[in-house]
Amino acid sequence: MLLKSLRLAAAAMIIGALTGSLPTLASSQGADIPAWLQQHVGTGDGQIAPVILQRARALYQQKLRQGVVSNPCYLAKDATRPSTDPGGRPGRRFFIICESRKSFRAVSSGYGNGRKLRRADFSNDRQCAKNFSNAEGSKLTMGGSYVTAETRTSFKGYVRQSGKRRPFHRTFLLFDGEGETENARERAIGGHPAVFVKWQCRYKNPQSAYADKDGYVPYGELVNYTGGRSNGCTTWSPSVSEEILALVEGNPTTLYIYPESGDIDAVANAVKKGGSLSRAGLYWNAACLKAIGAPKFWPKNTLQPIINDWRRSLPKQPQRELPICK
Fold it and tell me: 74-83: per-residue pLDDT in tens?
């Protein structure tokens, strides 16, 4: 019902545009948005686009009524925004909204980098996302409705911290989706800090709980890619990750990611026809739309066979062994 009502609202906006009576996007949100939150609505840096807030609030309020969530805060993401702002800082495209606390935060977040295969190039550049899909193995972002689920913490390797080699763990927050995002778990889609350990070598440490059968553990460099691309997951800076994980641990909430497939197709069609997005009641970040030309959604039933064929074509590689640390 939620998605149906949102589509009907979008259709009404387009009809309004054709008849010359299109309301402003801000006014389409309804009178129930409190004044303190209205000041954060817009398309400028640090603001949330009206259509995204509308859908994020509708999803959150629906799950509240259903008893699925009781968290005082909800989350949203705008994957159409650039990775960096005009000042060169990580672009703020992820939103933490706590209406009862009158709190709004805009922070950086990554998006899916995609792949470049012989039969299909669905890769994304570092600054703006052009390609989107819910195909497993696509490494792409999929817009739509999610609810945060449990967390899983895993060992990633040893890194040097405070002059000593220490084990590094990363916590992964799972997302449960619905509709086009219902395969989020199959795709291992969730949220985590934008850091990974780039393995370099292995050293003898038989006392470690993470040692292999020969007593070696992997060692490497901790790489921070805050605001960059990911394998389709939502990534945050380490400090923001701590805040979000603390917010939702044992207390799930909703996450709405924009754009959905219908938005992508509608924007692509409008661009093809040379029409105005605003007059059609559509939204895409202007800077990124100029950079990518037009977005593209790759349906799962189209892209999945290509990915599966590519995987089957890969030659079997012997398991590589890390060199011994010097």
Answer: 999 999 999 9
* Cβ 49 vs Cβ 102: under 8 Å: no
Q: How distant, in Å, are the alpha carbons of 39, 76, 313 from that of 116?
A: 41, 28, 15
Beta bridge partners of 221: 198
Q: What DSSP state is assigned to residue 215?
A: S
- pLDDT for residue 165 is more than 80: yes
Length of the chain equals 326
Model confidence pLDDT, tens digit, residues 40-57: 999 999 999 999 999 999
Residue 320 has pLDDT above 50, yes or no: yes
pLDDT for residue 46: 94
Helix axes 50-66, 2-18, angle to 10 degrees: 150
Domains in the chain: ranges and CATH: 2-313 (2.40.440.10)
Pairwise CA distance, residues 305 & 323, whole Å: 37
- Mean pLDDT across 121-146: 96
The closest of 22, 21, 57, 18 to 41, measured between CA atoms, is 57
Residue at token pair 């159409």: 80
Residue 145 to residue 149: CA distance in whole angstroms: 13
pLDDT for position 148: 98
Q: Which two tokens stand for residue 35?
A: 């004044």
Q: Running DSSP on this structure, what letter comes out for residue 316?
A: P
* Residue 209 exposure: Cα atoms within 13 Å on the Cβ side: 7
Phi, psi of 304 (to 5 degrees): -60, -45
What is the per-residue pLDDT across 260-269, written as a single tens digit (0 to 9) for each? Answer: 999 999 999 9
- In our burial notation (b when 16+ CB lie closer than 10 A, e otherwise), range 133-152 reads bbbbbbbbbbbbbbbbbebe
